[in-house]
User: Which sequence fits this backbone?
């Protein structure tokens, strides 16, 4: 698929670190002009953790330093960044680069970011090329058309694999003769049957379904699956009516109440991990890595390290398939619903950055063809070879990519990828080869033999084939609601925080209650949300959604 300035499938949000540039200029191809300045170090704050940060010591990062002269001194927050960003805004003291996720409004309102409009025009040809016709989505608002954030979601991304769904060990479906895994009832029955026949795994008690509720991660593993399982796409804490653009906090949907009732039932049946609401993230990963957790309701990225550990230890049968499970068959799992290109979350240059020109030039280098190939493929002759003009990754290197838990950290491939705009899967470079390695052949090559056996048994080539496809859903004209910045000091943010504090307390309580007490606890939950101002928050979020739709229509 050639690069086109058209409305296409896009991407989600990524995490990780970044770097900046030392050269006085880059040409349109992304190569650096011969005139250079001395080395420079930029500080960076990211609201996301980065488990594979390499301290810029890896071969790829060293190549970036050689090309640009720039080194990054980062801080990666493990708590979502909101508290740190609020402190920054209050103090007026900022690192050179900031990736604020949903807290950009706090910084923009505090005057923390440089307006990048002129810098991009003068020093960012590759940035402009990547964004293409989506460039207008970089505008902050109708009242302020400045550009303060460069969105880092891949452009024109075509999803090749599902990132969300119900995860079930390959060994479970193999032993049970590959049953249909379509509804929560199917998922539950597979877990129950396997547990009855296999009460222990490697001498440890078998765990049916494990959830994670460690701080903000409760949203990823425990509460987000409720909207996916009831046919709603990811809009953060809200369900957006596709016709009226009205926002409703998604827990207030009757369908989701029934999903949480099912989790309550799983707990009552002894199929839910009793440590789900007390375990920390590292304990969760360690437990999964042991191979004794049969099922998960999580994202691929959150459990990626545990999956790599299973693969590296030779426990391919204990790795997971991703299934489009919903509450009942009336719902369609919306993993592949198209958001259009996501503006919003990304990276900004702060007013304390003493050399914003070099900073934007560095981001422009990362966005260049050369920079993107380096971050996706690595270094020619070390991580791939050029054969008849085409990049080829050897079987030995691909084996390392697939099986080494620290491949990114050791090589630097992808370490800086989350900090500038890039093309998504399927987009081709000037040679006619895709920027990323996620083409069908590479995806299949990355599957384990056990995984291929499972897919073949279900009559498909890829996990995506099990899911409803993009063309079965309308494109969302607001993108993703979670991606709309909300000032941390605003009344809406305060209302949201009050509601989320209630969610973190009442959802576990409802799941762990005796079944005869579930409705009572849930009614208390709804009443507390109302008292915390959920209806006012919904009205304010509705206005944000409708404003974004209008802005992006212009």
Assistant:
């Amino acid at each position: 698929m050639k690069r086109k300035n058209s409305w296409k499938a896009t991407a989600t949000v990524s995490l990780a670190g970044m770097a900046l540039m030392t050269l006085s200029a880059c040409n349109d191809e992304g190569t650096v002009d011969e005139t250079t300045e001395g080395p420079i170090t930029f500080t960076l704050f990211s609201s996301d953790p980065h488990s594979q940060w390499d301290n810029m010591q890896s071969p790829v990062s060293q190549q970036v330093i050689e090309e640009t002269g720039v080194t990054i001194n980062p801080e990666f927050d493990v708590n979502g960044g909101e508290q740190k960003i609020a402190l920054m805004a209050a103090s007026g003291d900022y690192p050179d680069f900031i990736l604020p996720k949903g807290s950009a409004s706090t910084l923009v309102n505090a005057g923390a970011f440089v307006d990048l409009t002129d810098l991009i025009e003068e020093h960012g040809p590759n940035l402009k090329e990547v964004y293409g016709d989506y460039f207008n989505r970089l505008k902050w608002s109708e009242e302020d058309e400045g550009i303060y954030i460069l969105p880092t979601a891949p452009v024109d991304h075509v999803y090749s694999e599902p990132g969300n769904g119900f995860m079930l060990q390959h060994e479970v479906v193999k032993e049970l003769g590959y049953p249909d895994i379509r509804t929560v009832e199917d998922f539950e029955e597979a877990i129950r049957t396997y547990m009855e026949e296999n009460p222990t795994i490697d001498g440890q008690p078998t765990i049916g379904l494990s959830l994670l509720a460690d701080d903000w991660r409760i949203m990823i593993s425990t509460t987000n699956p409720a909207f996916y399982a009831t046919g709603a796409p990811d809009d953060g804490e809200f369900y957006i009516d596709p016709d009226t653009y009205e926002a409703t906090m998604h827990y207030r949907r009757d369908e989701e109440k029934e999903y949480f009732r099912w989790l309550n039932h799983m707990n009552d049946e002894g199929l839910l991990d009793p440590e789900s609401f007390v375990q920390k993230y590292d304990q969760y990963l360690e437990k999964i890595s042991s191979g004794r957790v049969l099922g998960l309701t999580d994202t691929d990225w959150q459990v990626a390290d545990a999956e790599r550990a299973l693969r590296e230890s030779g426990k391919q049968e204990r790795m997971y398939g991703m299934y489009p499970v919903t509450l009942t068959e009336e719902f369609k799992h919306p993993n592949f619903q198209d958001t259009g290109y996501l503006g919003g979350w990304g990276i900004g240059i702060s007013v304390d950055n003493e050399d914003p020109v070099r900073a934007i030039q560095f981001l422009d280098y990362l966005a260049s063809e050369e920079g993107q190939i380096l971050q996706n493929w690595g270094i020619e002759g070390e991580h791939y070879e050029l054969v008849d003009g085409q990049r080829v990754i050897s079987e030995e290197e691909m084996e390392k990519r697939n099986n080494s838990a620290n491949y990114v950290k050791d090589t630097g491939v992808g370490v800086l990828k989350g900090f500038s705009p890039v093309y998504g899967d399927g987009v081709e470079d000037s040679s006619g080869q895709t920027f990323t390695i996620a083409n069908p052949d590479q995806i299949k090559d990355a599957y384990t033999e056990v995984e291929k056996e499972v897919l073949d048994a279900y009559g498909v080539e890829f996990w995506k084939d099990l899911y409803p496809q993009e063309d079965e859903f309308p494109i969302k004209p607001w993108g993703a609601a979670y991606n709309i910045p909300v000032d941390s000091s605003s009344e809406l943010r305060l209302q949201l925080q009050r509601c989320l504090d209630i969610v973190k307390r009442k959802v576990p309580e409802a799941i762990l209650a005796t079944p005869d007490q579930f409705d009572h606890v849930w009614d208390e939950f709804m009443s507390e949300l109302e008292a915390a101002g959920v209806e006012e928050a919904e009205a304010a979020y509705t206005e944000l959604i409708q404003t974004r739709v209008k802005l992006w229509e212009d």
